[in-house]
Amino acid sequence: ETGVTQTPRHLVMGMTNKKSLKCEQHLGHNAMYWYKQSAKKPLELMFVYNFKEQTENNSVPSRFSPECPNSSHLFLHLHTLQPEDSALYLCASSQESGGANEQFFGPGTRLTVL
Amino acid sequence: GQNIDQPTEMTATEGAIVQINCTYQTSGFNGLFWYQQHAGEAPTFLSYNVLDGLEEKGRFSSFLSRSKGYSYLLLKELQMKDSASYLCAVMDSNYQLIWGAGTKLIIKP
Fold first, then answer.
1. Cβ of B42 and A102 within 8 Å?
2. Which of A82, B5, B32, B105 has the fewest Cβ atoms within 10 angstroms?
């Protein structure tokens, strides 16, 4: 256990569905991250929140919408996804962003878009 | 552009030693991380190097040469549980982590 939990662990959705991924960290960290991990590809940073403020959006399509209500919770809202969005979505947290801080990862949500 | 290169897959024998290389080209450098990721699980932190040289932590060691843009992870006395993917990541001048695609390490008895 890394202190970062994600739900659901697996999700299958159609292209017209709306769903949300949830991440919670119990480490007292101030920065949270969403990554996309596709097979045999590097981790792709999607969003960064530092002290609840979004500090990074790496040209992610608008069908992905993040929400950070407080420093412990992070959501990723999904709508009208495409089959190529099927991947493992990882949440991570660190003490702060913008520094050489180790990131702690959750177990991920395996998303399949039909 | 920014680039991290590491071998896609390696095979080693239980009890042996294996070295996983990582070369990088990034805009600036604020440290290099190694993470381990077992299949279906979260990546977990192994090591962090920001100065040249070797950092030893039990059976695992990590080396960095900033002038060569090169690092390696050395695993000694390999155990079956070391079968996993090993991810190299470099923190660039903006403190963003640039990730390699990972090296899948297969340990055979």
1. no
2. A82
Min Cα separation A19/chain B (Å): 22
Hey, what are A17's tokens?
Answer: 């569905």
DSSP A12-75: EE-TT-EEEEEEEE-S--SEEEEEEE-TTS--EEEEEEETTEEEEE-S--TTEEEEEEETTEEE
Q: How does pLDDT run across A25-43, given as a tens digit for each residue? A: 999 999 999 999 998 899 9
- The answer to whether B95 faces chain A, any CB pair under 8 Å, is yes
Residue found under tokens 């079956």: B80
Q: What is the pLDDT of residues A69-114, one digit of tens each?
A: 998 999 999 999 999 999 999 999 999 887 778 899 999 999 999 9
Interface contacts A/B by beta carbons within 8 Å: 47
Instruction: Report the chain B residue with the minimal C-alpha distance to residue A48.
Output: B96
